[in-house]
Amino acid sequence: MSAVVEPLTRPARLAPGARVAVVAPSGPVPEDRLAAGLDLLRGWDLDPVAAPHVRDTHPRFDYLAGTDEDRARDLQSAWCDPSVAAVFCARGGYGAARMVDLLDWDAMRAAGPKVFLGFSDITTLHEAFACRMGLVTLHGPMVAASDFLKNTRAQEHLRATLFEPESVRVIASGGRPLVGGRARGVTLGGCLSLLAADVGAAGARTGARGGLLLLEDTGEEAYRLDRYLTQLTRAGWLGGVAGVALGSWAECESYERLRPLLGERLEGLGVPVVEEFGFGHCDGALTVPFGIPGRLDADAGTLTLDIPALA
Q1: Which one of 216, 220, 275, 276 is the catalytic residue?
Q2: pLDDT tens, position by position, 41-65
Q3: Interval 264-285: pLDDT, tens
Q4: Annotated catalytic residue, options 53, 126, 157, 281
Q5: Does the pLDDT at position 231 exceed 80?
Q6: What is the residue-averaged pLDDT of the chain?
């Protein structure tokens, strides 16, 4: 039986003037979007610093932002820099799984808690920070992503989470119940395909028992989503989960086709499931903390955090 998902350590909220390091653990970052994102952060009275290799492209594989070693070095150096209060990811794509085991987690633990932000491929790092550091992280818009740059709702919800987290303890998405009811637990999750890919990896979470599991994905056909959910089920990973919130399925098959699949794979868990919860690869994506205890109300479409996301 897997261990119960427990509340994690919260990093401190950000204050005006805080230094924020921007890293690229996954795919290459368009320069114009990076520049626009850094400007937006400066407008929030933050002091953003781009990591040395954030503009790189791997010499052989153009889907990676620089070599595995350089991407890991950027993240670790930023985390261990005492002047840095937060580490924000520039974008997702692919590549976090190639560099996560190159990080010196002992050194990062010694550096203490900081705010970590990202989503999509960054799911691999959310899981690593939870399992190897016991740290709350933020699943939310990234610095060079269009939602961060152009969507007011996404910007405002992220900004409130960073600076005034008590103001967004109730995350109201407008979601609807796929399976009604309420559940208590600790938040976790991210991109479904990345969670499935993590099963069996060294140091990875062995299950979501007692958790409020938030799932989303992008660019996947129905049979692949079926495969990921089936893999998690066969591995016992979903056993004992307290509740499920389903986010966006951008560039997947039509939701009319996906909805019966999600229902068929999840209804048997016997727990509340809320759909269209408004996080992930969608316009106006909400920022959701992982590692915080709370209550999911599938009927109302709300996630109420017991405590603010950041201390």
Answers
A1: 216
A2: 999 999 999 999 999 999 999 999 9
A3: 999 999 999 999 999 999 998 9
A4: 281
A5: yes
A6: 96
Closest residue by Cα to residue 27 from 105, 121, 110, 93: 93
220 is an active site residue? no
Kindly name the residue from 2, 26, 120, 173 that is annotated as catalytic: 120
Any residues with CB less than 8 A from the CB of 95 and at least 6 apart, and which? 25, 26, 27, 63, 64, 65, 68, 71, 121
User: Is 248 one of the catalytic residues?
Assistant: no
Please indicate whether residue 2 is annotated as part of the active site: no
- Whether residue 174 is predicted with pLDDT greater than 90 in this model: the reply is no
Inter-axis angle of helices 222-234 and 255-266, nearest 10: 10
Strands (E) located in the chain: 19-23, 47-50, 86-89, 115-118, 137-139, 170-172, 176-179, 182-191, 211-218, 243-250, 273-275, 288-290, 293-297, 302-305
Any idea what DSSP says for residue 311?
A: -
* R_g of the chain, CA atoms, integer Å: 18
Task: Indicate yes or no: pTM above 0.85.
Answer: yes
Strand, coil or helix: 285: coil
Residue type, 279: F
SS3 292: coil
Contact assessment for residue 121 and residue 93, using Cβ atoms and an 8 Å cutoff: yes
How high is the pLDDT of residue 147? 84
Q: Which amino acid is residue 162, in one-letter code?
A: L
